[in-house]
Design goal:
48% strand; 10 strands; elongated
């Protein structure tokens, strides 16, 4: 019984201390949040046109041209999703703005009118486009759909990259089927 009385007394003392602490007049000012500032953009280029440069099917070492009208049939909405609406250059960085609120950020460097993006994965600089003499910028984009097949399974791989200028890197086996689409997005002020 004495033990039970001690525990109750300890609980009352703890409760009383907590009550006194919570009633103290410690008005700690809450910090006001600083407004978020958008990074200052040196210049912006807007999308003016889209050109299909190369559209082919590669199978068994043979290359066949595909009609440009088939691009949406084969790649579907993916073309719309990867099409940038504007490029925002700021010093040594580039923001590529796409639909649905997608913004890609890259470290960049210029070399003889050609633009290179830094690949964090491979820690190297990869070509992505070039500046033309009339002040336009042409952004390169390579898209592909690859089917690799063996006795056990069929593997479908689809992707795109700004540095892809040729389908040569995409063929792992002579039996693979690759649909290759290279596009250039033209930007102006």
């Amino acid at each position: 019984m004495k033990y039970f009385v001690r525990i109750i007394a300890l609980l009352f003392v703890t409760y009383g201390a907590l009550l006194l602490i919570s009633c103290s007049n410690n008005d700690i000012p809450t910090p006001t949040p600083e407004p978020e500032t958008e990074p200052e953009v040196t210049f912006v280029l807007k999308l003016k046109s889209t050109d299909i440069v190369d559209f082919k099917k590669i199978k068994g070492g043979k290359t066949t041209d595909i009609a440009q009208g088939e691009a949406k049939t084969i790649f579907g909405k993916r073309i719309e999703l990867i099409t940038p609406s504007e490029l925002q250059f700021d010093g040594d960085s580039l923001s590529i703005v796409k639909g649905n609120g997608i913004v890609e950020h890259y470290a960049i460097k210029w070399q003889d009118g050609e633009l290179f993006l830094h690949s964090d994965v491979e820690d190297n600089w990869e070509y992505c486009g070039k500046r033309s003499d009339d002040g336009r910028f042409i952004l390169n984009t390579g898209m592909f759909s690859r089917v690799a097949e063996n006795e056990q399974r069929k593997l479908f791989i689809t992707g795109q990259d700004y540095s892809l200028t040729s389908h040569d890197k995409l063929l792992a086996n002579a039996d693979d089927v690759v649909v290759w689409l290279r596009m250039e997005f033209v930007f102006e002020k």
